[in-house]
Amino acid sequence: MFTGLVEEVGTVQSILKGTQSAKIIIKAQKILENVQLGESIATNGVCLTVTDFTSHSFAVDVMAETIRKTNLKNLVSGSKVNLERALRLGDRLGGHLVSGHIDGIGIINDFNKEDNAVWVSIAAPTDILKYVIPKGSIGIDGISLTVAYVDERIFKVSIIPHTKNVTILLTKSLGDEVNLECDILGKYIERFLVFRESSSKKNEIDMNFLSQHGFV
Q: 159-183: per-residue pLDDT in tens?
């Protein structure tokens, strides 16, 4: 689990592409403190496992499913990425609970500066937007942000100077893809309600049920 508070911006050092997968080496510093093999590091919000490391870089394997479902497929040597180490028990939860499992891709639709903040509009598919609520939390490229506006096509977040300075979000361009992770609580609630409704329908007693079981 992660909090969505980016600790460091890393730089892609190299990418070794397979048929459908990739091995990525990322230059970093802070997140390598006390790093161990097998640890999880969120890279643009994607939970990845450290498979090798040096004093100034770490390597991760990216499988085909991750390539298909995230913007990691767009990385090239020199690309900047948001990085966060996994949450430790006892740490302050300054953002929100983030699993590092991306729900889908959004497209940057607009930037609009307002005083000290920048509004970012992101177009997203319906299966993402159904989980997005005003004043709710969403992970964008691994950044925990508060939804300030949402309609049937887009949602908006407002970026303060600190977030601008410590993440890559405002270095992106119109039309760029961003990884989106919706609040996990909404997904669990939806699953529970769908399962309960499905189970309820299976247990309905009607004339057809009574006839099949010899009561009429």
A: 999 999 999 999 999 999 999 999 8
| Reported pTM | 0.88
* Residue 210: pLDDT over 70: no
CATH of domain 104-199: 2.40.30.20
- Cα separation, 165 vs 170, in Å, equals 9
As beta bridge partners, residue 40 has 49
Q: Are 141 and 45 in contact (CB under 8 A)?
A: yes
Number of helices followed by number of strands (H, E) in the chain: 5, 12
**The residue to which tokens 């689990």 are assigned:** 1
**Nearest alpha carbon to residue 144 among 208, 100, 197, 175:** 100
Q: Are 157 and 114 in contact (CB under 8 A)?
A: no
Q: What is the DSSP letter of 98?
A: B
**What is the enclosing helix (H) or strand (E) of 129?**
helix 126-129
Q: Tell me, what DSSP letter sits at residue 71?
A: G
Condensed to tens digits (0 to 9), the pLDDT of residues 99-140 reads 999 999 999 999 999 999 999 999 999 999 999 999 999 999
Structure tokens at 29: 């510093």
What residue ranges of the chain are covered by domains with CATH 2.40.30.20? 8-85, 104-199
Fold of 8-85: Elongation Factor Tu (Ef-tu); domain 3 (2.40.30)
